[in-house]
Write a structure and sequence with these properties.
It is a single chain. The chain is α+β, with helices and mostly antiparallel strands. It folds into 2 domains: 112 residues, Diaminopimelate Epimerase, Chain A, domain 1; 91 residues, Diaminopimelate Epimerase, Chain A, domain 1. Strands 1, 2, 3, 4, 5, 6, 7, 8, 9, 10, 11, 12, 13 and 14 form a 14-stranded mixed beta sheet that branches. A hairpin with a 4-residue loop joins strand 3 and strand 4. Helix 2 packs across helix 4. The longest helix has 11 residues. It is globular. The model has no long low-confidence stretch (mean pLDDT 93). It comes from Streptomyces brasiliensis. It holds the Pfam family PhzC-PhzF. One of its GO terms (molecular function) is catalytic activity. InterPro entries: Phenazine_PhzF-like.
Length: 222
């Protein structure tokens, strides 16, 4: 494996107002150091983040997304984080072109619900019940949620990927938030995981915006 591949940024995406929490993301800015899918998959598994992004064209925003075990045509927190890092108006994913914008402290993407991988959206009566959930058995990707304040659109959520890759719970998942927003048809303020915050809003013609704060955890050593 090319030694240059150690050059990758680590971001935290969908951070809390104080900059804490968020879901870690690895971004290899020069995807040409690992052009083959098998090598990218191996590297994503080595890093162990819920997702790793390889940037194939930083000016056009062409990206390739991997979990530790599979390639994803689209994923939410990788797109939000990479759009912030590259400061581009759009990202080109295998699923389609994702709109992107920065608005103050928030990085936003606009995507289509049908691009998101399948998730089971499971509602619970109270946020306390979501807090108390154990990690479910593997095999089903579950987004557990409950209203904290329905009138205000505030949601408590936890995400369980159900995969055998060492990630029992995702701290923040934009694709699942996108699906929930599409189902409910309203803007949401989601508190997920230990303290991450995701904001969403339905858009015309079936699009959905997902946004959050992004923090640069570390840059590559030079």
């Amino acid at each position: 494996m090319n030694a240059r591949v150690t050059d990758y940024d680590v971001l935290r995406v969908f951070c809390a107002p104080n900059g804490g929490y968020g879901n870690e993301l690895g971004v290899v800015r020069d995807g040409s150091v690992l052009p083959e899918r098998d090598a990218r998959q191996e590297f994503a598994a080595k890093l162990g983040f819920s997702e790793t992004v390889f940037v194939d064209d930083p000016e056009r925003g062409v990206i390739d997304i991997y979990t530790p075990t599979l390639r994803l045509p689209f994923a939410g927190h990788p797109c939000v984080g990479t759009a912030w890092l590259l400061d581009v108006p759009e990202l080109v994913t295998a699923a389609g072109v994702v709109g992107a914008r920065l608005d103050g402290e928030f990085s936003w993407i606009e995507a289509r619900p049908e691009w998101a991988p399948p998730r089971t959206l499971r509602q619970y009566p109270t946020a306390a019940e979501v807090d108390a959930l154990p990690v479910p058995p593997q095999g089903e990707w579950v987004y557990a949620w409950a209203w904290e304040d329905e009138a205000a659109g505030r949601v408590r959520a936890r995400a369980f990927p159900g995969r055998d890759d060492g990630i029992d719970e995702d701290e923040a998942t934009g694709a699942a938030a996108l699906l929930l927003t599409d189902r409910l048809g309203r803007a949401l303020n989601i508190r997920q995981g230990k303290g991450s915050q995701l904001l969403t809003a339905p858009q015309p013609e079936g699009w959905v915006e997902v946004g959050g704060r992004v923090v640069l955890e570390r840059r590559p050593e030079r």
